[in-house]
Every structure is written in C-alpha cells, then in structure tokens.
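Training component of the fellowship. As part of building independent skills, the fellow (R.M.) carried out the full modelling exercise for a liganded target. The chosen ligand was zinc ion. The inputs are recorded below so that the supervisory panel can assess the work.
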Amino acid sequence: MVKVITIAAVLGMIGTASAGPISPIVVLDPGHGGSNSGARGAGLVEKQLTLTLATQVADRLRARGITVELTRTDDRTLTLRQRVAHANRLPADLFISIHANASPTRSQRGFETFVLTPRGVDVDGRALRSDTPTPRPGVPADIALVLDDVERGTSQWKAADLAARMQRALRDRRGTAGDRGVRQDAHHVLLGATMPAVLVEVGFLDHPVEGKSLAEPTTQKRLADAIAEAIEDQLSD
Ligand SMILES: [Zn+2]
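Fellow's submitted model of the complex:
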C-alpha cells in the first residue's frame, strides 16, 4: 500500500510540529579563539578579526530587534562542533560562522561563503534517511520521517540562499573581482547543524594589499554591514 501525503498536509504538519519562537534567533560564531589563533597577516590575527566583526554584526542586528547569540565573546578555544551544538540547543534559526583566510603563496585574495550541510543531508543535497525520526508529539513515526526529510531539504535551500545573499552583500562593498563564490565543503558535512548554516571567509589576511585593508576599521565596518544585511534580508523573506 502506498500512503499518499499531500504537500499541503506535510507543510501544515511542519507548521504545527516545529513552531519556533516568534523572534528569530541568530547565532554568530567568531571563528577560532584561545589557543587556536587561525590565519595571520601583517599585524592581524584571525581570532581577533572574527570577534570584532561578529560583535559589530550583533550590534547591528540587535538594533533591529533581532535576538543574537555569540558562540564566544572572549578569547577561548572551542571546536566548530561545539559551536554548532550551542546553536542546536537554542535552537537557532540561522548559524553564521565568520572566518578570514590565508594562503601558502600569500597571493590569494577575495571572499567566499560555504554552505554547511545540515545533519542528514549528503553533499549533493539529498536527504539521508535515519531510522530514528525527530520526536514529534502526536505525529505517526512514518510521517515524522517524511517531515524530517522535508525540513532537511528546506534547511539546505535556505543555507544556499543565505550564502548567495552573503556573497552579494560582500560583492557590493568589496568589488566583483574578489568574489570567489558560494562553495560546499565536504569537510563540514557532519557538523550536525539542524538550522541553515553558513561559513563566511571575509578575505585573506596575508595578502599584501587585502591584508592591510582588512586591518582598517572602515573595511571592518563594511564587512559587518554586509554580513548583517544578508542576515536581515534572509529573515525578512
Ligand atoms: Zn578560520
């Protein structure tokens, strides 16, 4: 027997089964920290730049009434997995990890955004079935599995959407030449984020020109503006 579930029925169930908080929660993750300094450039260390940017982005979003949590507000060591777990516990509506780059030849420059694949979705975006569905009071187990698939797929689409907005907002302020595009990294597949999650690399700290630029407060303000704008756009959609 084939059980037919209409899209409307499925969407209706998502609405009731996962009714989230009224005010969205954004988790900003300043990359690195503590003993893990990250990339280095002339006078600039990644863990410091990411905290500066995340703090500025948080200020902008909070001024617009958006609830923001940072995975760290000081210089401490955390794994990326611990940061994602923090976001899952809330649960957050969006997760944005902020990073800066370095290259062995110090010749690379530009910005890029990685889509972090949600738990249970492979790199091609196909939902991977798990035999243990998310607990959904009052929803039969077979239907819960279908709902899980739909939500994972939706999360993946939203993350790709957010990544595209991030690149667009950065391109507007940093120029088309530095646009390295949206990427998906197999390395991040198993992080386990349950909400749309991206990792933005704002630029290369060790590039002789770009590195200097990243150290300037005016550039940092533009980067924070770009990241905040992309998040606001995503939430208001
Ligand atoms: Zn990094």
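The panel noted the following from the submitted structure. The chain has one domain: 21-236. The first strand starts at residue 25 and ends at 30.
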